[in-house]
Amino acid sequence: MMKIAQTIDAIRAAREEYGLESVGLVPTMGYLHEGHLELVRRARKENDRVIVTIYVNPKQFGPSEDLSRYPRDMEHDLELLSNENVDTVFAPSDEAMYPADYQTTVIVTQVTQPLEGARRPTHFEGVTTVVTKLFNLCRPTRAYFGQKDAQQVAVLRQMVRDLNFNLEIVVCPTVREKDGLALSSRNKYLTAEQRAAAPALHQSLRAATVLWAQGERNSDTLRAAMLDILSAVPSARVDYVSAANPTTLQEYSDTVAAGQGILFSMAVFFGQTRLIDNVLLPPGAE
Amino acid sequence: MMKIAQTIDAIRAAREEYGLESVGLVPTMGYLHEGHLELVRRARKENDRVIVTIYVNPKQFGPSEDLSRYPRDMEHDLELLSNENVDTVFAPSDEAMYPADYQTTVIVTQVTQPLEGARRPTHFEGVTTVVTKLFNLCRPTRAYFGQKDAQQVAVLRQMVRDLNFNLEIVVCPTVREKDGLALSSRNKYLTAEQRAAAPALHQSLRAATVLWAQGERNSDTLRAAMLDILSAVPSARVDYVSAANPTTLQEYSDTVAAGQGILFSMAVFFGQTRLIDNVLLPPGAE
Lengths: 286, 286
Hints:
Largest sheet of chain A: 6 strands, parallel
Strand order of the largest sheet of chain A: 1-4-3-2-6-7
Number of domains of chain A: 2
Largest interface: A-B, 30 and 30 residues
Number of strands of chain A: 10
CATH architecture of the largest domain in chain A: 3-Layer(aba) Sandwich
Structural class of chain A: alpha/beta
Order of helices and strands of chain A: EHEHEHEHEHHEHEHHHEEE
Shape of chain A: globular
CATH class of the largest domain in chain A: Alpha Beta
Helix content of chain A: 25-40%
Oligomer: homodimer
């Protein structure tokens, strides 16, 4: 029987019961799709207990972003998670997470600066702060995140190392539709026409990956290959395309040195809807 | 037999062994005195296991402060702690705590602003960051701090509540010399003449406490009473005297409302040596 904890006391009590059993944590903002469920299944396989959190964290949304219209469907989410044999769902209120005199922030200063961080200046401190709270409340053995949010993964890895959290970050591959579009709760905002055009993100990543596999190491050429494909889509407005160091996320300039991996990533607007996607090619993947 | 852990791996391994036993943590910067030892004794009495950390945290010293000359005597510290039946001492290097690409900070934004925070602008983010690391490494049931660092206690209480650390902050009374001087590792910097004058801090706190007990609620009058005594000491240079709300640390102005507690505190220079002291009178203590 899946427990639903909505208060700090309730999640603490649930965690207390698990004692020294291994705990897998899957933090989400709800409106769950197959990508989330793959994280849950992996957590289920690797741990004695699985806790999924559903919380649309206001601190990681900018003032002009989609907090108020972010899609929610708690009933459906709970049904999906119950089918995956989750032990506890933590779905707190804003008041429980950020009471009136709340005043603490966790800040990672460098890997947060480029890419998403440059466009969404307070996004990652919202993420690192809420994830610190979830780590402290759930004390997981392992925490599961999707590769789709590549910079989030890099930031959280850095935070876990720097603050000495006693847990392992497990990263799961991006789950895609048949036509290559990465699953995202925000895909539901797309019109039929935009939806038809959206696989261009994945196509441009594949083009860059093919060039990389063929030995292309000029980062300008690699970025141009992605941009060419995206620019050909009338309904797409490119926010950025990037070919960066996968650990520091610093943009490569000129030729990528031998033995380096690469993170291809991008953000593209379709109307008001902003989609991101990436592919990570670690060193030795060539 | 007391364990001495000097690396992240070693303290993790020590903590792992304690499993679900209760753990008392006493974070210190070493050069231990009776004040520290009282924290250790209380921790010993209340927990199955006691971990003491000795680490002069560079991040909580300002650029013009006394980091390089801060007193150290590891051998003597270990002897004292062994006599108190401590289970593990964690004494890491700077490289272990802050490796080359370190980039994460924990910031409490409001209660850090007045008093010590106003004079030492990066001090408390150094404290909250290192204490977060120690909490994650040692996962204490209870963590022990001295009332002498009153603002530190208020800041850490706020951080523990905001970030949902699963532990209790235990505050122990300030330990004093017979003449009232609060014990501090920095007292050793004092010349004989300065040492003879230093009990003025405690005397001024007693004067304010007596006035408070007699019903005085004008905060200007209470501050003036402290300042009068300190100003009469030729070798003392007052940095601040304060009569503040004990939770927010906001300075009281005019009359303190009925049912409020009060924190009297001060910082005073003797030459280059800066001493602090305080007394906390909770609501209902009148």
